[in-house]
């Protein structure tokens, strides 16, 4: 994938702003961003303005007044658009235990922090140590919603480390106070590119060459890219720009560098730039830039709807409680970093499985097809944990199932015909014991009959209305593209096959052709309240 020219990026940014001016009042629109067009489910090299909507409909079902034009004119240049279905962005938080709950003296970035003002214990992440340019004092940097409570905390409010959510019986406010809230960027109705605050350090040591809990500080070769502020609970995360954050707060990132500011990226990173961070909940993780200059609407408690702008989108970098974490450009931009990314993905997906502990689809299948599949919940868990979660493709499909549980349940609300129920029971009785044997260690491999039954199942699901024509075609073509390769494979061989990047890309591209599927969930602020 080629990098986007900076002039093109700037032009598309202006086009996105124009789209919000013209169509921002439409509640179906959830945001805009700059990226590359997807055609036939595959990512192309064509730069576009991505217009995110709650529900993407066929052109014939959209009124002219609400129709997003194929291109927007900016100073005589037509900037192409690409409409993408994405969930509305909401602000939310949950109380999650942290991987880094300990006390750190001297202070290190990546550890847990919180403030006094919240009504109940909370936690976020100490993003960095900075110098306040107005008076030269040393301060900690984190998100506004972590240490300033969305503008509502008073100046001088104590900031705790460890975060109050992580306190042991021995901890007290006096013992854990590391500073006092000093200044924040106000989050107001309208738009903001920053969610940040600083607190002046008090009574604790900060080493001149301080480092992170599990990470070295940023440098000229590893500049700070941004600050983690939001995620959707399914692995996708958004960052605000570190350069913009520091400018708005009038602060300098420490340790100091020559020339000043060399440790902060001065412009948006290129897509696919590899990143790393350390945060209170998930500790060290690695990912890469998926998109830049995204705008999303956020319901901020006590403030209202706010448009977060200039965001950087990534994946598998964090979870609730990692808000405020500093994200740094990884020094290693080669394929050697991929094991770190896979480990991070596995860690985040383990947290996703805690949220979706049981398969909510099984009762709906049982109702629609009259098969006793809910009795197989243990087998379902075994397949998820000991087969699907062992490969990149399997983990992607697990997440996709979680995201589309409501859609599947809705389509299975009515009982299927007697003919479809009889077919489902025959299939169930044939494969339930076979799958159980394979999971127990049987050496059975995939047979020609298995492939034929897959395509027959797709046909039944299409005929009964469970699959749309578009979904059927994509799933059918996907099966045909892999049927020869997997013939005769045993379970371990299938797992290795599903770990191939080409297989993951093939499956991901097929699901992108199914426009009714949700690819990521609503973004939420990643505090742990």
SSE arrangement:
Blueprint (H helix, E strand, L loop, with lengths): L5 H18 L5 E11 L2 E12 L17 E4 L2 E9 L26 E4 L8 E2 L2 E5 L5 E5 L1 H4 L10 E3 L12 H4 E8 L5 E3 L4 E5 L22 E8 L4 E6 H8 L1 E3 L20 E6 L3 E6 L2 E10 L3 E12 L10 E4 L8 H18 L6 H8 L7 H10 L5 H12 L1 H7 L6 H22 L8 H16 L5 H18 L4 H8 L2 H12 L11 E2 L4
Parallel strand pairs: 2-4, 11-19
Antiparallel strand pairs: 1-2, 1-18, 3-4, 5-6, 5-9, 7-8, 7-15, 8-12, 9-10, 10-12, 13-14, 13-20, 13-21, 14-19, 16-17, 16-20, 18-19
Fold and architecture overview:
This protein is α+β, with helices and mostly antiparallel strands and 529 residues long. It folds into three domains: 80 residues, no CATH class; 237 residues, Trypsin-like serine proteases (Thrombin, subunit H, Beta Barrel); 143 residues, no CATH class. Strands 1, 2, 3, 4, 11, 13, 14, 16, 17, 18, 19, 20 and 21 form a 13-stranded mixed beta sheet that branches. An eight-stranded antiparallel beta sheet has the order 6-5-9-10-12-8-7-15. It is globular and about 75 Å long.
């Amino acid at each position: 994938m080629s990098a986007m020219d900076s002039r093109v990026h700037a032009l598309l940014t202006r086009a996105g702003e124009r789209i919000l001016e013209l169509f921002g009042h439409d509640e179906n629109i959830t945001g805009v961003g700059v990226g590359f067009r997807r055609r036939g489910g595959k990512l192309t090299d064509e730069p576009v303005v991505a217009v995110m909507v709650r529900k993407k409909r066929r052109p014939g079902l959209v009124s002219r007044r609400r129709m997003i034009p194929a291109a927007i004119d900016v100073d005589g240049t037509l900037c192409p658009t690409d409409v993408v279905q994405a969930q509305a962005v909401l602000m939310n938080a949950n109380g999650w235990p942290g991987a880094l709950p300990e006390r750190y003296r001297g202070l290190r970035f990546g550890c847990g922090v919180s403030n006094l003002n919240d009504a109940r214990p909370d936690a976020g992440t100490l993003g960095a140590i900075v110098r306040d340019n107005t008076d030269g004092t040393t301060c900690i940097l984190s998100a506004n919603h972590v240490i300033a409570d969305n503008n509502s905390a008073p100046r001088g409010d104590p900031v705790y480390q460890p975060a109050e959510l992580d306190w042991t019986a021995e901890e007290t406010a006096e013992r854990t106070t590391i500073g006092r809230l000093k200044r924040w960027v106000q989050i107001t109705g309208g738009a903001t590119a920053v969610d940040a605050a600083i607190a002046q350090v008090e009574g604790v040591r900060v080493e001149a060459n301080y480092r992170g809990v599990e990470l070295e500080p940023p440098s000229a070769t590893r500049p700070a890219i941004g600050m983690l502020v939001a995620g959707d609970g399914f692995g996708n995360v958004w960052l605000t720009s570190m350069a913009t954050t520091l400018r708005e707060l009038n602060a300098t990132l420490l340790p100091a560098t020559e020339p000043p500011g060399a440790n902060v990226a001065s412009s948006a990173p290129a897509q696919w730039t590899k990143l790393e961070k350390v945060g209170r909940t998930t500790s060290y993780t690695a990912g890469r830039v998926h998109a830049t200059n995204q705008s999303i609407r956020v319901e901020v408690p006590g403030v209202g709807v706010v448009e977060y702008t200039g965001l950087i989108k990534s994946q598998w970098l964090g979870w609730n409680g990692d808000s405020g974490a500093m994200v740094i450009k990884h020094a290693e931009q080669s394929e050697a970093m991929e094991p770190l990314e896979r480990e991070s993905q596995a860690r985040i997906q383990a947290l996703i499985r805690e949220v979706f502990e049981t398969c909510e689809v099984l009762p709906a299948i049982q109702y629609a097809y009259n098969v006793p599949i809910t009795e197989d919940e243990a087998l379902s868990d075994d397949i998820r944990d000991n087969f699907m979660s062992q490969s990149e493709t399997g983990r992607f499909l697990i997440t996709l199932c979680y995201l589309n549980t409501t859609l599947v349940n809705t389509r299975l609300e009515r009982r299927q015909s007697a003919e479809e129920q009889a077919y489902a029971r025959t299939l169930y009785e044939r494969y339930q014991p076979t799958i159980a044997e394979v999971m127990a260690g049987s050496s059975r491999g995939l047979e020609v009959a298995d492939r034929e039954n897959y395509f027959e199942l797709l046909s039944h699901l299409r005929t009964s209305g469970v699959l749309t024509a578009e979904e059927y075609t994509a799933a059918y073509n996907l099966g045909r593209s892999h049927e020869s390769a997997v013939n005769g494979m045993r379970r371990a061989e299938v797992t290795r096959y599903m770990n191939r990047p080409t297989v993951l890309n093939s499956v991901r591209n097929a699901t992108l052709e199914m426009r009714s599927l949700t690819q990521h969930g609503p973004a939420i602020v990643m505090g742990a309240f």
